[in-house]
Amino acid sequence: MRLLVVEDNRSLVANLFEYFEARGHVLDAAPDGRTGLHLATTQAYDAIVLDWMLPRMDGPQVLHALREAGQGVPVLMLTARDDLPDKIAGFRAGADDYLTKPFDLPELEVRLEAIVARATGRGRSRVLEVADLRLDLSSLEASRAGRRLHLYPACRKLLEVLMQASPAAVTRERMEHALWGDSPPDGDMLRSHVYELRQSVDGPFPVKLIQTLPRVGYRIAPPADAGATS
């Protein structure tokens, strides 16, 4: 699963990342409601873990804005507010599930898997395809010409961004934001990750899909659609 955690408790976020990433899931985090809403409406997630009490915009406001925007991504509210009126308000705002703190991590994982399964039709994969390249957003497995690709998490995230936009270009700024949010590292780390991605996606194959657009960014497309330098 690819998850967005909207939570201002850094210790809790660190625990969630440690637990879920060890199980092969991919996570993004937002420390306040407005940032969470921006990520939720510009990136693709299987589910969102949403706190109630957040800076800048609280959880129910984020939920309401998401549903008003037509975003059907499953949302689990994770909050210390355990009164029945709060739970009712959370569900009425558009939550798919509601879990109170403190909680057990395995229970959170099972609940997220359940709401994702309901949203995707129990076992139906969401698959991106460009030419003979496939990326399953449910299992996070990538393959080309039937051959499984082994990708680091950063490369997999870049591949998802590129495939979702294909055949359009993706700017360097957007790719950097997908990896590091508003705090990209010094130096050209993006170029290094794109190089690693190319080694996996294009290296063993005669047809190259990842294209460089000078002074713009990158895109992924069959050669007939590309028209750019590789």
Q: How would you describe the overall organization of this protein?
A:
By secondary structure, this protein is of the alpha/beta class. The protein folds into two domains: 119 residues, Rossmann fold (3-Layer(aba) Sandwich); 100 residues, Winged helix-like DNA-binding domain superfamily/Winged helix DNA-binding domain (Arc Repressor Mutant, subunit A, Orthogonal Bundle), CATH 1.10.10. Helix content is 42%, strand content 20%. The protein contains nine helices and twelve strands. The protein has a five-stranded parallel β-sheet, sandwiched between helices. The chain has a four-stranded antiparallel β-sheet with strand order 6-7-8-9, covered by helices on one side. Helix 2 runs parallel beside helix 3. The radius of gyration is 19 Å and the shape is elongated. The C terminus is likely disordered.
Structural key phrases:
Rossmann fold; 12 strands; 230 residues; 4-stranded antiparallel beta sheet; 5-stranded parallel beta sheet; 2 domains; alpha/beta; 9 helices; Arc Repressor Mutant, subunit A
